[in-house]
Amino acid sequence: MYSILKKTNNFTNSNSLAILLSFLILLSLGCNSSIEPFQIKKSQLGAIKTGMTIAYIEKNLIHNLKKEVSEAGLFNISGGGVAYLYSDDSGYQFGLVPKYETDTVCCIIALSSKYKTSNGLHVNSTIREIQKVYPKMKVNLNLMSDIEEFYDKENDIVFCFMTNESKRIGSYPKFDKPSTPLNLDIKTDWILIH
User: How far apart are CA 3 and CA 18, in angstroms?
Assistant: First the structure.
């Protein structure tokens, strides 16, 4: 590119540099993928989607991550079964939960704050930050797991919070009724993607 600009006598060195920089910026913008590699969407985390097989994901989409077997119930996923957790040197990244006794993913667990929704929410987002996006949000207490959760019905994702009786997000005089958030500084522990 520079040699082409140098051959034309109409350009000064500063004009040539400006054009070269503009060209490089346009080239880099054109190379961006239409799929964000770390975006949380309905039924999807980056290129990983529910309905894919774990064998396919591990062969084609996951590279240089360690795999660990855990229990799906620990992540507020009913029905038992396993959760495969994937990590690197910085910690856990995500988990995959297959349908019972199959290899087909039914749920994805976002465990790292680098995975974000289109509106910027992620693991470690506070209730206050979530409430800015969902002003009418309500939280539920799962009595079986003692985990509080907020369900985004439109995107079919669940923000999960490991709380306890001394530090709850909401108040639950009737345990089957959701609560308006009261403690706004609690952070998201993980996000379930269905």
Answer: 15
